[in-house]
Amino acid sequence: MRHTRVKRSVRGEGRAWTTRALSLLLMLVSLQLGSLISPAYACGCGAMVPSRESQVAVDRETSVVDWDGRTEQIVMRLTVRGNAPEAAWIMPVPHRATVELGDPGLFSELSVLTEPELVTRHYFWPRSHDWPFSGSGNVGDGAAAPSAGAPAVEVVGRERLGPFDVARLAATDPDALQKWLSDNGFELPDRLATALKPYVDQKWEYVAIRLAPRDTGNPLVGTLEPLRLRFASERLVYPMRLSKLASTPQQLGLYVLAAHRMEPSGPIGGDAPEVTYAGRIDPRSVAEDTVYLERLTGGKPVYLTAIEQSFPHPERIDGDHELRAADADTPYRRHVYENELLTVGGVPVWVLSLLGAVLVAVVAAVLLVLLVRRNRRLRTVPPAAAGVR
């Protein structure tokens, strides 16, 4: 397998040559996917392109990113909606990638490991859902360059993985591509070409994926099976630039596995990224079953950072997420607070307090009555009799 290289002219025609090569490469992607393309909907790692007169949108993208300083793995799961029975997905990668199906159970394991800690907060006076107002129980309200003999157009690899038809592409001669694609009558959305230009300038490659449900004719709806991509990378990067093509707000969830706590270098046009969990994890010693996490990491201890980010205006996205080590491996865990009526032995404390107050009042009243009676008796004793010893 050889790395894709897009050659650029040395002088005056450089910029036009690059743009032409980019357009040709994307047209090839379209042909390999076997359908005409329409304006793109985007997901964080690539463009989701439905067939003509269909629509598909990515509501949420959740990915596990594992990086050991040399190799990066991305296990990505998309939640989609729309009426498209099939769609194409183009993902840029910095180096040639291998692709296989991911393990859905990995996300369940990480969700359990990073779930918030439940903290109970007690309140004194009864609320609307407590007795005597409703009679109900307590309810919480928590919160390489190609060789000389390489063919001009080459499909490096193609695999069928579950619902995914994966094509890994290489092209070396833009003139041959131009003629071949023109003969086949394919067109290219201008917006997608513009968005992909930075990746071409960096000589990235592309993984083209055709998504189709197992039941032919049914639209792509819900959570799709995850895909696992593996490629060489000396820096931890999560491609996000193509999300600027999205027509709806985007939600990103990242589970980052590395040697240290990681953080994005910036918001890249979205809301400030929020760390929801940070802590060192040893898959072999945690109480929960982590067979899929062990499989991904090889069983070695890792530092897990969970990050959530919203992109209410996707058109403002201006780059990829580059993650770096934080200043310190400070652990963090969210707290979810459950409010609960304060009780003792199952009896609300406010009831005991009222009973206690009533008892104190009764005792005080009795003592007051006794004191008044005593004073009255003293007043009725004659002075002379009072002086007799």
Provide a descriptive summary of the structure in words.
The protein is an alpha+beta fold and 389 residues long. It contains 7 helices and 22 strands. The protein has helices at 14-33, 104-113, 174-184, 190-201, 291-297, 349-380, 383-387, and strands at 41-43, 46-50, 56-67, 71-82, 87-93, 98-101, 117-123, 153-161, 164-171, 205-211, 222-223, 227-232, 236-238, 250-258, 262-264, 274-281, 302-311, 321-325, 332-333, 335-341, 343-344, 347-348. Strands 3, 4, 6, 11, 12, 14, 16, 17 and 19 form a 9-stranded mixed sheet that branches. A 6-stranded antiparallel sheet has the order 1-2-5-10-9-8. Helix 1 (14-33) crosses helix 3. Mean pLDDT is 74; it is low at 1-12, 28-42, 136-148 and 170-188. Keywords: Membrane, Transmembrane, Transmembrane helix.
